[in-house]
Amino acid sequence: DSGVTQTPKHLITATGQRVTLRCSPRSGDLSVYWYQQSLDQGLQFLIQYYNGEERAKGNILERFSAQQFPDLHSELNLSSLELGDSALYFCASSPRGQENYGYTFGSGTRLTVV
Amino acid sequence: LAKTTQPISMDSYEGQEVNITCSHNNIATNDYITWYQQFPSQGPRFIIQGYKTKVTNEVASLFIPADRKSSTLSLPRVSLSDTAVYYCLVGDISNAGNNRKLIWGLGTSLAVNP
Q1: Is A25 within 8 Å of chain B by CB?
Q2: What is the mean pLDDT of residues A95-113?
C-alpha cells in the first residue's frame, strides 16, 4: 500500500456520461497530480494541485476538471466521455509540491467507456 | 523541459546485472534525474534519484557522468519480479510548487527471463 488511495478501482460507463474519480494523498503530502495512461502509452500529466490551489496544467481536455478540497483529497471530473477517454487514471502525491522528493502513486482507476 | 531518450525494450536473464541508459542532452543546471518502475496496471514506483556522480540505494545504483547528458540505472542481479517498465525523468527542483511538468516517455520495457 503506497498510502495514496484511489477510488473506484474500475469504472465502466457509456459515451456522453460524466464520472468522478477520487484520490486521497499520502498523509502529509500537500500536492496531488493526476495522470492519464492509455494502452501502451506513457503517462500524460493532466493537472497538479498544491494545498488546494491549481499549480500546473498539462494536457487536460476542457471536458475534464479537477479540484483539491480542504482535507487535501482531490477529485477528477470527466464529462461528455468519449471512447478515447478509456485509460488508466493515476493520482500521485508529493510533499511540499516538490517532485524531487518523488511522487507516490496510487493504484489507479481503470476507466472503460463503451 | 529536458527531453529524455531510452531504449524501448531490453531483455535479460535472472541473476544478471542490467544497465538502462537514458539520454538527456538538454538537461538544465537545476534538473535532477529520477527513475521510476511500473508494473502492469499499477502506478509507477520511485526507485532512485540523483544529480551527479553516483547514487546507490538498496534497490539500484544511478551513474551520472560529469556532463550529466546521460544517466545509467543499474539493477544488480535481476529476478523475474524486476520485469517492468522503467522511466527516466529529468526535472527542475528549485522552487517548491513551481509549474513544472515532468515529461514521461514510453520508458524501457525490461523483460527478465528464467
Answers
A1: no
A2: 80
